[in-house]
Amino acid sequence: MHYKLSKFSEFANALYPHELDYLLGIQQFEQSDNLKILNLINYNSRNPRNILPYDVTIDKRRYSYMKNWIETNLEARDVDLFYDWLIGYEKKVLTDLIQADEEKELLKKAKGIEPSHYYFIRFYELMRYYRDFLLIRNRTDSYHAIEEFLKANQAHYEAMVKLNAKLNTASEDIVGQYFDSHTESRQWEDFLTEVFFNPSIDGYTRYRAAVRLTYMYYNYREFGKLRNIYDELDRSFQAGIFYSRRILANYYANRAMMHSKLNELEDAEKYAYLSIRHENSDYIFYLLNLCGVLLKSHKHKDALATMQQSIPMLKKTANYYYRIGFAAFYTRTLTANKLYSEAADYADTFHSSYKKEISKNRWHLFYSNYFQALSFCENYGKILSLARRYKLIEKEKQQLGDPKYLPVLLWYSTVADYMEGNIPEEELEQIIIKSCDILVRNNYKIAKINVLLNELSQFAPNPFRNIRDKTRQVLAN
């Protein structure tokens, strides 16, 4: 009995809150123990640090029934499972392997798939392949039913194909802006918003619009606007729309980032922990996201434990974007735990091995944390040497005018110049205040500037008293 409940507990406690919201919304249990179990699963899902045990006095068959009921109902809404089914049937049709009972299932699906279905576009294309399969075999009985489906939905399908082509064009501008601060993507905001909030459009297209809006609002550092998108996604997930564990994990990770940027750290931590319940190809990103939230919440030991536990998984990825992100966060985490020499040594070793990759991926994030570790080690000469050799200050200045831009490397290298006796205090103040004056400012950016000033004041407290007073006046204007 204990073994059975242990397995059930493991299954139940891995469920997501939105999965439970959906299940509670559709349940019509007549057996009171079923609802009692579901309510406890719901509580445990939302309170992972205070998980209550499942009642061993309830008949173990109730638990078996509930596990089966949960899996059956979630699988029925899972868009990833539907996609697997769709691809499998497409292969069977195209290779002439489809069986009679499978054809009946296709015909049944054609009666139930609406244009708003998540994978409507791909299903429509499957029906076109199936129509050709029937036509060449003179199967007029089934052919007419499929032809009716295709004609009834042809206009909508063609409109969705054009819409997705437009989304591809928007993606080029939005992603391009991430790499080139002179590219604009604001012109796509209204279009993407209209697509996402239109319930008559298929879920895949709508979700693509949501992802691009997320990217765009991050580019412009407009995290408040992102809340409207995520609140709508929240309602959709509760209703079983857009559902898959993959999509939910991605949503939780992105929502954690949004709350972190808005300094809503309790919510950020909650969603970050939810995101790592599901392992996929983005799991390292989710872990780094969690680590960033823990550091911001001053839970430095938790952050270090999280990073160290993820090292075996990091070795499995060939994604340099994630590898460099990990190195940067691990360096920062070691520094936060006052392991300054270890932080600088780790960053130095990683830098020696991956110079070329760093120059192409997340170089600003990596060097920002590398410079911080070197500063705590009072190795200011190394900072100046790295900045000169790789032209980091010139590279950073190319981002001027970009909402993402912060002169982190400029300020750290200027402090290093001051600490090495290369410039006087007045010049240190002048450089930092002048660079602060030209920043694109919003509430998020101002908060980041203040954090950076606090960091740097640890190395040169006297001049930074004046700098903080003067920058406060600059930022207020």
Mean of residue pLDDT values: 92
Shape: globular
- Which oligomeric state applies? single chain
Helix and strand content put the structural class at mainly alpha
Strand content: under 5%
| C-alpha termini separation | 68 Å
Biggest sheet features: none
What does the radius of gyration come to?
27 Å
Number of strands: 0
Q: pLDDT below 50 for ≥5 consecutive residues: which ranges? A: none
The string of secondary-structure elements, in order, is HHHHHHHHHHHHHHHHHHHHHHHHH
Count of runs of 4 or more consecutive helical residues: 25
Percent helix, as a range, is over 70%
Can you put this structure into words, describing what you see?
By secondary structure, the chain is an all-alpha fold. Among the domains are: 2-77; 399-477, no CATH class. The chain is 75% helix and 0% strand. It contains 25 helices and no strands. Helix 15 runs antiparallel to helix 16 (320-336) and helix 20 (380-389) crosses helix 22. 34% of the residues are buried. The mean pLDDT is 92.
Layout: helices, strands, pairs:
Elements: H1 2-12, H2 17-26, H3 32-46, H4 60-77, H5 79-94, H6 100-112, H7 120-135, H8 140-179, H9 189-196, H10 203-219, H11 223-238, H12 245-261, H13 265-275, H14 283-296, H15 300-314, H16 320-336, H17 340-353, H18 355-360, H19 363-376, H20 380-389, H21 392-397, H22 408-419, H23 425-437, H24 443-457, H25 461-476
Helix pairs in contact: 1-4, 2-3, 3-4, 5-7, 7-8, 8-10, 9-10, 10-11, 11-12, 12-13, 12-14, 13-14, 14-15, 14-16, 15-16, 16-17, 16-19, 17-19, 19-22, 20-22, 22-23, 23-25, 24-25
